[in-house]
Design brief:
Rossmann fold, homodimer, flat, seven-stranded mixed sheet, 23 helices
Chain lengths: 710, 710
């Protein structure tokens, strides 16, 4: 599902990334100015197409003939770069559209990032795109680069140095600076880049367009995406799905992980911050793998490109070092990122010890300085480990050994031989330079990363990419049409439960009564013990006004409690309308979950589940996903809770009915998605999950209509 | 307290680090051999003292006259390097001791790292140190280097390149490779090193010696310590205290943080792994700050040296960037490491906006690309932030801007002016090169770190060092002599509680009875409701055999429960000796803690506390410290629990009696320390902590004598 009325993600971006002619509107003689730098860079790096500076006050710009206006150009340029002040940008775009240009990049700033006035000006640019069909990148963006094509539609100062080599990484970034810095690091490390595309304020082309276009670009093998926000969730999801369908790994640096970061992002982008955890869920569903820094983005993206199809088959990792201390650091780091460290088979250990008797043959394998003694020693140890059936990946740590020519002469041939022999296993290195040795290893198909933490994190990222590739594409959750609800009628517990029960959430048999006699009769019919709860549309939080009585064991207790409770409630909330008293069976045992939904500013209805009581409130141990989820994803949510062992029969507890709990989570999530127009929040507290086979039941429920949460 | 019979930490190491003459026993003509490399390096780097190769089969080694034996040397060398096979090491040491040498470095491997046989050989080396008073570094170590003195008693291949510059960082490492790699990174970054000292298998000189000597070394301003294990806890604690008394920051890379890492460390060092969390507690007490990687060790150590006395006064950090995206990343990273990000005062915000109207003047401050426009813009923004009363530290992020000459020309003078004006505040940079600009800034007293995560983590580390410096030195907990306990008499709950009550742990009044009538009478005297528990030295876990009955409200219930319980216990454990039944009042309400002690293989008795139930068991939310702790540290333990809000009155709960809980923790810890000879473990489960002012009480207690835990 993609927002109606907009182009499919990625459509029309060819002219931005593969233009045959580029006009620079606002071209400047001064190459340090934003209107001067692209003219300089296009010439310096040898753009083979036409470069048309547009400047009404110059006959020539940086050695090229200049044109007075877009209308005066010899032909319609494929791409127009708009490098004029904000107040002239709309007119410049209109001129270009009139000349027949189908794509533009707007460098100008002074739009939505300044607040309401700028937002209006920006909306005017978006309207030009909608009306003319011209795709507009920006405003307030750093533009786009295609390295192999020498198409340089940017004013990034990073290119004052040099271009990165042409290669497999496509960079799509909302932030110009973070995108630029990624390109800078790539260039410094000699890592190849296909495209660089920054979307800035996104009046038209958004990050989903950028990802989708790169997903279908032959030159791009891995997509690196930098996200600060998301202005159209369905388009983003669709773009990530397109990348997955194309078999292109997507590595995402999504910034704004903390409250402070989200506040900064909202202030910077002018967009509402969505829950960071919901972004995680979207990435997990679509197989994108998230990193936390520009350095990690490049490490993982580059490693994925080096691996190509040969991603690790599993997380069983063998660590090999020539140093016990580094082995310990590696083991710590590998464990922290979720790699598995199985012990080598006894036969493998014997093979290692037969070559280096003083080695530590367990995992991490410490082959001691003997590893660098003779090439055949290393070949034999590598072969022993790669032959081990418990090994999916071998991470060899060499610190700075490759700087020593004697060791380099031993390691490189041995690694080459093993890489060619064991194509089915990942062979990766943790190495601190030198650059030419790293390049040689990389060319052989071995990812090389500098640093213990960075190399183990990259390996774990490769495993996550491999798992995403292996996982079946998640089927869309079917949402049969549901009758619209009357929001006003949802405000009592009884009505909320009725609506949820109709949606498939188990509730208890219960009755609403008008007096103590009816209460006692209802209790007898339902079976003792029972609970009583006041029914009132004005009292969503019944406990706070004394409106709940628990564990009433006989008719006398029910009658007395009925009177006492109503007296308390009337004293506490004399204005509240009372619609009677709810009588329900009292259940014991089981595990209490809180289960609810709310509206995320970016992703709409989301479902949350956590253990009840202080776990959710104080430990913040809650799973959250966009609604709807199917039962498999609901079960994955439960499993992701730190407190999951409580449900899973830890320490002699009975195992809870996980299947029933998952069904309830899925049912609530479907309800929230179906009734998104009427329902702002659902709050089931608790959902009692009984022992395996005994089901789960919503003991209390509250629905907050959207009209109450403007 | 330092282990009896050993030299004070650091004593006698001068000869290792400031020798005037060095003999190399096993000197080799081949400079790639471990007996050849020091001869080469000492000459190459210009050691000004005497270099005496000892080799019975050569008249000359690498151009120097060689000697047949230690006895043949012209004088007693200050330092002997032992580079012979393991089986000849002891004889070589004896020869050197006989010649009058007071210190030796043993490179030879093949000792405790090989298991029992090697351990015996190593013990023989240790015995030579003890008998002769000669200090021995190693065996199986990479030796020692003093940079300014050109004293190179190592065979590290890192020095095949060059020495690091002489400077303030003293490196003390158990692992030769990790120590070497630290030195390599320092050299690459141009960071000055005073000493390099690797302790290897520690037959005599240990990591505590190394830290203590560096703490008292004039050339060393900051100690970088790499720990894999600890073989003598009191010496380590004393060494860290010495560093603190000397005002020298200690940054520790303690490896083996995870179970996998600890297993690797134990296998590598042959030493038992202590609880990683106890190391944390020891570092916290002594003011050492822990890092997780070699890179972070160098980042923080160098930054601390650059700051000198001018550490940040608090954690209130202002972030300044020229990029919204980097601002978000910085805010995320700063929050994650515990920095505070206060909003600037309104007046500060107005000052910033008066200079750059489109800036984001909140924290992070995004001064946009205008920041690099003119020097006076940056000066004014820096001044506004540094004048703000809410600012302890200003972190300026420039990515790679200093590579652009125009920007460098703006930034450097502005920073210099501000550094000189605001000496009371930390001014730090997150910058990606170039090296000469970094060196210039560093020389002005501004720490510079590459990378968002690394710079924020380093800043947080500086704050931790500053907090440690400000904190009062913890007083030793007084442990009055206590009468030794009879371990055999501790095995029942009643005896355990009696012993703990005598140590100051509150318990309930309770009685042990022999029959149902006595039980009913005791219950009446104590007051209903009561609990009954079986008393048996054979049944430490009473619940498992049905040996506990709760909430007995009258005499009839007590009589019935007494019979039923004993029948259940006899059926479940027919062999168990039953010594009666314990009757105690039944308390309700409050928060249940688990409180206990156990023996750590490295640190001896340690005290643990956590919330009862699944918090401690499943969430592993437990605080652990070496025993004894005082009440302030006990309170800090409680506050460190993730579940602390449960004790602190979260969500309308009554606040628990924290002072009483802390008193109980401290009392139990003193008990464990006093009775360390007799007691292996104490297990109080639960300690019921009642509402503020109502105290805490041990409801159940178990003491496991050391004779039960061989």
């Amino acid at each position: 599902m993609v927002t109606a009325g907009r182009a499919a993600p990625g459509a029309g971006l060819d002219a931005i990334l593969r233009p045959r002619s580029i006009a620079v509107i606002g071209a400047s003689q001064d190459a340090t100015k934003i209107g001067g730098r692209p003219v300089q860079l296009l010439q310096r790096f040898g753009f083979p197409g036409a470069i048309w500076p547009v400047n009404p006050r110059a006959a020539e710009v940086q050695g090229l003939p200049a044109f007075a206006s877009a209308a005066a150009l010899p032909d319609a340029p494929d791409l127009a770069i708009i490098a004029v002040a904000a107040e002239h940008a709309a007119a410049a775009l209109e001129d270009c559209a009139a000349r027949g240009t189908r794509a533009a990049v707007v460098f100008s700033s002074g739009f939505a990032e300044l607040g309401a006035e700028g937002e209006a000006a920006q909306a005017a640019l978006g309207a030009i795109a909608t009306r003319t069909g011209m795709r507009i990148l920006g405003p307030n963006c750093l533009g786009a680069v295609s390295v192999a094509e020498r198409s340089i539609a940017t004013f990034s100062i990073v290119l004052e140095g040099a271009l990165p080599p042409a290669g497999p990484l496509g960079i799509a970034s909302q932030s110009g600076n973070l995108g630029s810095y990624t390109m800078l690091l790539a260039r410094e490390r000699g890592i190849g880049v296909s495209r660089f595309l920054t979307t800035g304020n996104e009046c038209d082309v958004d990050i989903a367009d950028a990802i989708a276009w790169l997903a279908q670009d032959d030159a791009t093998k891995v997509v690196l995406a930098v996200l600060e926000t998301c202005r159209d969730a369905p388009r983003l999801v669709r773009a990530l799905e397109l990348a997955r369908e194309a078999g292109k790994p997507v590595v995402v640096l999504k910034i704004g992980a903390t409250a402070a970061g989200q506040a900064a992002a909202a202030s910077h982008t002018g967009a509402l911050a969505g829950s960071d955890a919901v972004f995680d869920a979207v990435f997990a569903r679509t197989g994108a793998v998230r990193v936390r820094s520009v350095e990690a983005l490049l490490d993982l993206g580059h490693a994925a490109a080096v691996c190509g199809e040969a991603l690790p088959r599993g997380r069983r990792t063998m660590l090999l070092t020539a140093s016990g201390g580094f082995g310990v650091l590696l083991a710590d780091a590998a464990t922290a990122v979720g790699l598995e460290l199985p012990a080598p088979e006894p036969a493998t250990q014997r093979r290692i010890l037969s070559v280096v008797p003083f080695a530590s043959a367990r995992n991490p394998v410490d082959a001691t300085a003997q590893m660098g003694a003779r090439p055949e020693v290393l070949v034999e140890i590598l072969a022993a480990i790669l032959d081990d059936p418990n090994c999916d990946a071998l991470l060899l740590q060499l610190a700075a050994s490759l700087y020593v020519p004697r060791l380099r002469g031993v390691f490189l041939p041995a690694l080459k031989a093993m890489r060619e022999k064991h194509t089915e296993k990942l062979l990766m290195l943790s190495v601190h330079g030198p650059a030419d040795a790293v390049a040689e290893l990389t060319a052989l198909g071995m990812p090389v990363v500098d640093g213990v933490d960075a190399s183990t994190a990259t390996l774990a990222g490769l495993c996550a990419l491999a798992e995403a590739r292996r996982a079946p594409l998640p089927a869309a959750v079917a949402l049969p049409p549901a009758a619209p609800l009357d929001p006003a009628a949802l405000r009592t517990e009884a009505a909320a439960k009725q609506a949820l029960a109709a949606a498939g959430v188990p509730v208890l048999p219960e009755r609403v009564v008008r007096n103590a006699e009816e209460a006692a009769a209802a209790a007898a019919a339902l079976g003792f013990p029972v609970v009583l709860k006041v029914v009132s549309p004005d009292l969503p939080h019944k406990t706070e006004v004394g409106g709940v009585m628990l564990d009433l064991g006989d008719a006398g207790a029910v009658t007395a409690a009925h009177a006492a409770m109503l007296a308390r409630v009337r004293a506490a909330a004399p204005q509240a309308r009372l619609d009677g008293v709810l009588v329900a069976p009292m259940l014991r045992g089981g595990v209490e979950l809180i289960l609810g939904t709310k509206r995320d500013p970016v992703f709409g209805p989301v479902v949350l589940v956590g253990l009840g009581g202080i776990f959710a409130e104080i430990m913040q141990d809650v799973a959250i996903r966009p609604a709807p989820v199917d039962e498999a994803e609901a079960l994955a949510m439960l499993r992701s809770l730190r407190a999951f062992p409580v449900l899973d029969g830890a320490r002699g507890r009975p195992r809870a009915d996980l299947a029933a709990a998952a069904r309830a989570v899925a049912a609530v999530s479907r309800f929230a998605a179906q009734q998104a127009a009427a329902v702002a929040e659902v709050d089931i507290n608790p959902l009692l999950v009984r022992a395996e086979g005994e089901g789960a039941v919503a003991l209390d429920a509250l629905i907050i209509p959207r009209e109450d949460r403007p």
